[in-house]
Design a protein that fits this description.
The first copy, chain A, is an alpha/beta fold and 200 residues long. Chain A has 8 helices and 6 strands. In chain A, the strands form 2 sheets. Chain A has a 4-stranded parallel β-sheet with strand order 4-3-5-6. In chain A, helix 1 packs across helix 2. At the A-B interface, helix 1, helix 2, helix 3, helix 4 and strand 2 of A face helix 1, helix 2, helix 3, helix 4 and strand 2 of B.
């Protein structure tokens, strides 16, 4: 027998769909919702139900937004010819939290992965090429994860833009700040050694 | 500048109202909601908005229910003259998870605490007395936390029922002092139930 009223069981199941939430935590969250007042519950509820209706992709960069063009693309202080290319919108939020990047973004919405059937046409690359051709002297900063898929995507972008005057850079690879050298994985260490910089 | 679309900020604030959720976890949950499909979001949303409309107190024991009488009070296998007295409905869920208690419950909805201005009339005691008087040979098992408020409430119940033939027991002190009933492990709870002592 289910010990919870049906409605609570439904809510518990939805909490369990969120990342890292197990049975016990889901129960705790569901029971604590009961302590919110009616207005708060109504507001929370209607916010959740309007996610798909309200949030869309920015028509320029593909970032998550509630208007046609996102806050970042419409910010006059952002350099429009410095474009950071990321896999998804979570990376954009990460960069914006950092706070001192004065360029804009381009959200690919995935990485090229022939083994999973994801080809260049399936991700947001065509509009990136268009942006680079419209803006002279653009610098693309590739900020994709260092995996086979990330590298494949980076090389594809490099190749498709090779006849434009777009400058293409990528984030540096190396030792994360604060890490213990002893506990680094071998690949990172190898990369950090290969990319070593002269101490100035 | 807020880096999130307004709707996401609202949702993040609500997640932060749930127990133990900080800024970063709230952001993670809010962003992962976007991955649910429209039907799921609608269902989750409407479940949350109907919490106050659907859930109420059982007219017999005060436990959380979606009908007039809760599942437990209407269960024919539960002994109606064995009543476990608890502070809130979370304790009931805890006992029901343990699974081998064959009595019913009485949810006080608080503990007597003169210092906080909570008197016997402010919690669900009158209906407990009524239940005891209606049922001959009732045993009350007091399952309140071992604090001043818990003990005060226990003694008050003992005193107000002293001229009835109600047997009053309490959970044994296997319960670690200061712990919340809701977060006990099931074995400790089971042991405490088995070792219950008559209030002298």
């Amino acid at each position: 027998m289910n010990i919870y009223p049906e409605l609570l069981s439904v809510i518990i199941e939805y909490f369990k769909k969120l990342p890292g939430i197990g049975e016990r935590t889901a129960e705790r969250y569901a029971l604590s919702l009961i302590n919110l007042n009616e207005d708060e519950l109504e507001d929370f509820s209607s916010s959740i139900s309007s996610i798909k209706k309200t949030l869309r992709k920015c028509s320029i960069c593909g970032h998550l937004t509630d208007s046609d063009v996102c806050k970042i693309c419409s910010d006059p202080d952002k350099k429009k010819n410095l474009i950071c290319v990321v896999e998804d919108y979570k990376s954009v939020f990460m960069f914006e939290k950092m706070g001192n990047f004065d360029g804009v973004y381009h959200v690919l919405g995935g990485l090229i992965s022939p083994i999973d059937g994801i080809n260049p046409d399936d991700i947001n690359i065509a509009s990136l090429v268009k942006r680079c051709k419209e803006n002279k002297d653009t610098e693309l900063i590739i900020a994709l994860k260092p995996t086979v898929e990330g590298d494949t995507t980076t090389l594809y972008i490099k190749k498709i833009l090779e006849n434009t005057n777009t400058k293409i850079t990528r984030l540096s690879y190396g030792i994360p700040m604060g890490a213990e050298i002893d506990y680094l994985d071998v690949l990172t260490l190898e990369r950090a050694l290969f990319d070593r910089k002269e101490v100035s």
